[in-house]
Amino acid sequence: MAKLHTSEITLKVALDENRVPESLTWSAQDGGIDNEEAKAMLLSVWDSGNKESLKIDLWTKDMPVDEMKIFFHQTLVSLSDTFMKATQDEKMTATMKDFCDYFAEKLDLKNM
Length: 112
Prior knowledge:
By secondary structure, the protein is of the alpha+beta class. It is built from 2 helices and 5 strands.
C-alpha cells in the first residue's frame, strides 16, 4: 500500500487586547506559501454528522471597506465556480453568476 501524504495549512491570527485581529498570516508548504499576510479570510467546513457548515470569518481592523466589497464579490464568483465543479448544475450556476453580476453592479465594483 502506498504511503498516505498529508498536507498542512496553518493560519496565525495576532489579536489586540480586545481580541480583534490585527494581522493574519497563512502558510501552505505544499503550495509554496510561507507566512503570507492577508487582510481577511473566510473558512467553511462541512460537519457531516450534524449536516451543517461551520465557519470562521476574520478580517483585520485595517481591512478597507472597499476592499472587503471586492473580496466578497470575488468569493461569490469563486463559490459559483466551485458549485459548478461539485454539482454540474448549470442552471443554478448561471443563477448564481447573475447574482454576482447584480452584486457587482449595485456596489459599483466594475469601476474599481
